[in-house]
Amino acid sequence: MAEDAILGYLATAEEIPDSGQFATQHGLHHNDVVNVIKSLHGFRYIDAQDIKRESWVLTDEGKKYAADGSPEVQLFFAIPQQGSISKDELQKKLEPSVFKIGCSQAGRNKWVDMGKQVSRKVQHVEDKVKGLLIRVQNGEEIGKDDVNSLKARKLIVAQTWKGYSVRKGPNYAPKKKKVATDLTRENLQRGDWKELEFKEYNFNAKGPPAEAGHLHPLQKVKQQLTNIFLQMGFEEMPTNNFVESSFWNFDALFQPQQHPARDSHDTFFLEAPSTTRELPEDYVQLVKSVHESGGYGSRGYMYDWKREEANKNLLRTHTTAVSTRMLYDLAKQPFAPKRYFSIDRVFRNESVDRTHLAEFHQIEGLVCDRGLTLGDLIGVLNDFFSRLGMSKLRFKPAYNPYTEPSMEIFSYHEGLKKWVEIGNSGMFRPEMLLPMGFPEDVRVIAWGLSLERPTMILYGIDNIRDLFGHKVDLSLIKRNPLCRIGIN
Ligand code: PHE
Question: What does the pLDDT look like over 387-431, one tens digit per residue?
Fold first, then answer.
């Protein structure tokens, strides 16, 4: 429509001086006219020159007054024709901002007497401001002084209007020819390709952006951490089971059955299948007895251990469940020292906020060897974390049911200028290792931390929902930079 209008008009006229006026005259949207002008210009049917105009538009406040009247007039009409009204009464009748602005403008116009009592000073007022605002809204010109006063009251703002003036171009025709964009089998069969006019190639057109996969920041940091573990001689554990039995997640870790973490408020239990199919029976008996009555120098927890509780399936709450299975397998073979690591997902029934989700990734490392000490653990942690760029570490005694001693790990954060907790660690208890069948002098040192925390720090993300889940902005995934751990 706009295309025919423009080309048709130029058949008899020299020029369309202003695309804005042209659009209004022809009942077209200016945007449509602009799009057609750009395209016709591209085919050189027309020549187009930019024109720019400053115009005025109403601010939100201006729009309100154009509809409801200026505050000073609203105030005026809230005052009785005869007599007076108390200032407090008057204030109650009006919106706070209308009252405040109305008082000062009506006072300046000498329309009202302002005191404790307010009364009209004139018979009649005219809402000049509203009138001017409506004219601006309709695109009419108003005087310079009026512009200045509306501008000073922030009721209008300047806006640059962009349009075109248009003349015939070298390829002008009153109607645009349809050009072919494809050479089809039908064109060849009919032979009409000889007459067809083909659209020229536009070698300057940008092609669509190439679609390709992009690594999520968590994947990048995970890869860097994997490299660090591999450089330190660690082997990766198979973590491809989100569903675990309570036995491997808790019982084998000497975590008592009445421990609060085993509550459904903290752990997601499975409805179907609700229980595990098989557990290594001999080992289950040993775990049961170490819970009930101890052994290996321990008194145990002294309660009735229930098999049904151990059978319950859950979404693993930590990757330490995997470490436990690995250690159990290792203990069955002739002893050889091992270093294992894993980085994978775990689930906790927690309330979600800016730093917590009900699922996250855990990084876990363990070293199993004869005669290891707490000093070895501290040494390995210093080595590991300094490779992550965190060389200032501090440790604080902590408690885990499966480690003794246990230590929280803190690192000095140069940016935040304070010590932040970065992980948890400890030496697995004999109550856990000896039932597996390890020789008595074998010790296992281990630590765990979240993958999300360092990733958020490295990528400057402060809300975990911007990193993981359905609210993640895909352009973040497409554009996030390489991960360069330790170089910051
Ligand atoms: N499993 C612990 C946690 O979930 C981390 C940890 C791993 C602690 C190994 C000590 C030893 O926080």
Answer: 988 888 999 999 999 999 999 999 988 777 889 899 999 999 999
**If you count DSSP H runs as helices and E runs as strands, how many of each does the chain have, helices first?**
19, 15
Instruction: Quickly state the pLDDT bin for 289 (edges 50, 70, 90).
Output: very high
Q: Which residue lies with its CA nearest to atom 4 of ligand 1?
A: 318
Q: Is the dihedral of CA 290, 295, 300, 305 positive or negative?
A: positive
- Cα-based distances in Å from 107 to 150, 408, 415: 18, 69, 55
Coil, strand or helix at 40: helix
Between strands 418-428 and 313-315, the pairing is unpaired
| Residue 258: pLDDT over 90 | yes
Q: Which protein residue's CA is at the shortest distance from atom 10 of ligand 1? A: 425
pTM, two decimal places: 0.62
Residues 6+ apart with CB under 8 A from 161: 20, 52, 53, 54, 55
Cis ω before 96 (30° cut-off from 0): no
CA atoms of 239 and 79, how far apart (whole Å): 78
- In this structure, which residue's CA is closest to atom 2 in ligand 1? 448
| Under 8 Å between Cβ of 375 and 407 | no
Closest CA to 323 of 382, 397, 403: 403
Q: 488 falls in which pLDDT band (50, 70, 90)?
A: very low
Question: Ligand 1 atom closest to Cα of 317?
Answer: 4
pLDDT digits (tens, 9 = 90+) for 76-100: 999 999 888 999 999 999 999 999 9
- For residue 7, how many C-alpha atoms fall within 13 Å in the half-sphere facing its CB? 19
Question: Which of 250, 314, 400 for mutating ligand 1's site (highest number of atoms within 8 Å of CB)?
Answer: 400
> What pLDDT, in 10s, does the model give residues 177-228?
888 889 999 999 999 999 888 888 889 988 888 888 899 999 999 999 999 9
For ligand 1, whether the C-beta of 320 sits within 6 Å is yes
- Whether 426 lines ligand 1, by a CB cut-off of 6 Å, is yes
Nearest CA to ligand 1 atom 6: 448
Q: Are 332 and 309 in contact (CB under 8 A)?
A: no
Classified as helix, coil or strand, 158 is: strand
Q: How far apart are CA 369 and CA 234, in angstroms?
A: 13
Distances (CA, A) of 438 to 431, 432, 433: 11, 10, 6
